[in-house]
Amino acid sequence: MAQLEAQDLAQAVIDRMTDCKEPRFKEVMTALIRHAHAFVREVQLTPDEWMTAIQFLTATGKMCDEKRQEFILLSDTLGISMLVVAIEQAKGAAALKDRPEIRGATEATVQGPFFWPGAPQLELGADIGEGNAGEPAYYHGRVTDTAGKPVADCVLDVWSGDGEGFYDMQKGPDAGMALRAQFRTDHDGNYRFWSIRPSYYPVPADGPVGKMLHRMGRHPNRPGHMHTMLQAPGHERLITHLFVSDSPYLDSDAVFGVRNSLIVDFEKHAPGKAPDGRSMNKPFYTATYDFKLVPSAA
Amino acid sequence: MAQLEAQDLAQAVIDRMTDCKEPRFKEVMTALIRHAHAFVREVQLTPDEWMTAIQFLTATGKMCDEKRQEFILLSDTLGISMLVVAIEQAKGAAALKDRPEIRGATEATVQGPFFWPGAPQLELGADIGEGNAGEPAYYHGRVTDTAGKPVADCVLDVWSGDGEGFYDMQKGPDAGMALRAQFRTDHDGNYRFWSIRPSYYPVPADGPVGKMLHRMGRHPNRPGHMHTMLQAPGHERLITHLFVSDSPYLDSDAVFGVRNSLIVDFEKHAPGKAPDGRSMNKPFYTATYDFKLVPSAA
After folding, report:
1. DSSP A267
2. In chain B, which end has fewer C-beta atoms inside a 10 angstrom radius, N or C?
3. pTM for this predicted structure
C-alpha cells in the first residue's frame, strides 16, 4: 500500500505507464505530468485555487461550439500556439544545413480560431469584400517555391474580419460565410482578389479567456491582418497572416503572432483605375505580397 | 515590432502582466506560463499533437454536466488532485511545530467527482444501503478533535458506489440519490449508519479520460471506499475515504488516493444480532473508524 507524498506523486503517475505501447505518447505524457506537478508544487496550489482552475477549464470547454474555439483562444493568448508554430519553424531552420534550398521561405504564424473549412471557391480577381464594412483593398502577388519557381494551381484560402474587426463567425448563429474564399493561383503562380483592409480587433473577450486576460491586466487586441493558408502538391502547407503595417497593436498582439517579414504596406489610392483595370469610385488600398513555399522533403 | 523566438515567448507572455492587480494570480499564471512553455519546448510538440490536445480538452469540457466532471477525473487520474491534498496536508505538518495539538489528525484524500450536494439528512443509525446492490455494512465510530475531545453535532456526509461499483450519478438522467446521506454526531461525537460494503470500481472510462488511461496502458480501477466529508464549527473541514482493507487495487488506485491510515478492516459476521441491536437475516460487515479533526487556528 503506497503512501505517496507530494514530491513522489509525479513519478508514481509516470510509473503507471509501464504498459504504454506508444513511445511518443509516453514521452509527451511523462513531460506533461512532470511539469504539471512541478507547477502545482512550485505555487503550492490550494484546494480553492484548484477548484477555480477546474471551473475555468469546464467553462472554457462549454464555450466551444462549431464557430467558437475557446481552448484555441486560450492557447493563443498564452503564447502556446505561436510557440508550436515557432518550434515547427525552428525545425525547418535546423534542416537548412541539409536543405539549403528552403532558405527564404515565408514565415508561418498562428491559424487562430476563425478558420471555417469549405469557403466558396472563386475565380481569381473576385471581390469578397463587397457588402461588408471596411475599405476596399486589392491583394495580389505570386506564389513560388524558395527557388523562385512559380507554384501553379496552389490553393489559397483567405479569411479575415471586416473593417470593424468582426468575423462572419461572430455574427450570430444564422450568419453565413463572409470575407473568406478559396482561390487557385494561375499557371504562373499569380493570385489576386479584392477584399477589405482588415481592422485591428479584440479576440472574443466575453468568455472565460476574456476574463483571464482582464485579470492579467492585458488588452485583447490583435493588429489588423489577412489570414492565408496555402496548399500545393509537392510543397509544405503554409498557414500565415499578412499584417497591416500601420495597424495599432503590432507591438502587443494578444496572441503573439506578429513576424516582421509578414508586415505589409497597404498603399492608399484615390478613386480611379485599380491595377486590375477595375474603376473605383472611392479610395482603395493595394497590398502586394509574394509567398515562398517550402518544397516537400523528398 | 517584436520578433519572438521560441525560447523568448514565455517571458513575453509573462511581461504582458505588468498591469495585473492581483499578486497571487500573477504568481500562479507566471509559473503556469513558464511550465507550459517548458513542456511544449521539451517535447517539441508538433502542430498535429497540439491539435490533438485542443480536441482532447474540448471533448473533456463537453463531457461535463451536473453529474459528470471529466476535468476533475482528469486531475484525479494524473495525480494532481491528490497532490493538492498532499500539499495542504504538508502545510498542516509544517504548522506542527507551532501547533503540536494537531498531531494525529485523520488524513485527507481526494473528493472525487461524485459528491452531490444536498443529500438527505437522516437520523443516526439509518440504513442508506437498503434496496441497493451490495452486502450490508454497519459503520460506526467517534469524531473527536486531535486532543480526543468529542465533536458533537459534526455534519458527516457519506457517499459511495454500490456493491457492484456504481454511483447513483452514473445510473442515468432520471436516477435519484442513493447511497448518500448527511448525519450529525451525537453529544458524545458518535456516529453510526448502515450502508453497503463498497466494491472496487472503474472510474468512468467511456469519455476522453478513459481513452487517455487506455493509451497510457493503465487500468481505471479504484479500491472500494466510503467517501466522507466532516464539517463542524471550530474545526477544519475534512474530506477523506475509508478504504476496504481486502479490496483489490489498494496498491494501484487509479487516482492515487490511498493513505495507509485510512484502510479499515470490514469484519464479516454471520446472520444474527448487529451491534446496534438490529436483527440481520443475512451476513453483514462492521467497520469501525474514529475521525480526528484539526481545531481551526485561532
Report:
1. E
2. C
3. 0.90
* A19 vs B: CB within 8 A: yes
C-alpha B164/C-alpha B201 separation (Å) is: 7
Q: Which residues of A touch B47 (CB under 8 A)?
A: 84-85, 88
Q: How far is A153 from chain B (nearest CA, A)?
A: 25
Count Cβ–Cβ pairs < 8 Å, chain A vs chain B: 224
The answer regarding whether domain B70-293 maps to CATH 3.40.50.40 reads no
CATH of range A71-293; options 2.160.20.80, 3.30.70.1650, 2.60.130.10, 2.60.40.2380: 2.60.130.10
Interval A243-272: pLDDT, tens: 999 999 999 999 999 999 999 999 999 999
Residue B22: list chain A partners with CB under 8 A: 215
- Radius of gyration for chain A, computed over Cα atoms and rounded to the nearest angstrom: 22
Give the ipTM of the model, two decimals please.
Answer: 0.91
- Helix residue ranges per DSSP H, chain A: 6-15, 23-43, 47-63, 70-77, 80-94, 208-216
Buried b (16+ CB within 10 A) or exposed e, A127-159: bbbeebebbbbbbbbbbbbbeeeebeebebbbb
Which of B225, B27, B145 lies closest to A46, judged by CA?
Answer: B27
Residues from chain A contacting residue B44 (CB–CB below 8 Å):
87, 91
Which residue matches cell numbers 483562444? Answer: A73
Using one digit for the tens of pLDDT, what is the confidence trace for B202-252?
A: 999 999 999 999 999 999 999 999 999 999 999 999 999 999 999 999 999
Give the model confidence (pLDDT) of B128-170 as tens digits: 999 999 999 999 999 999 999 999 999 999 999 999 989 999 8
Across the interface, do B50 and A16 touch by the CB < 8 Å criterion? Answer: no
**Measured between CB atoms, does B246 come within 8 Å of chain A?**
no
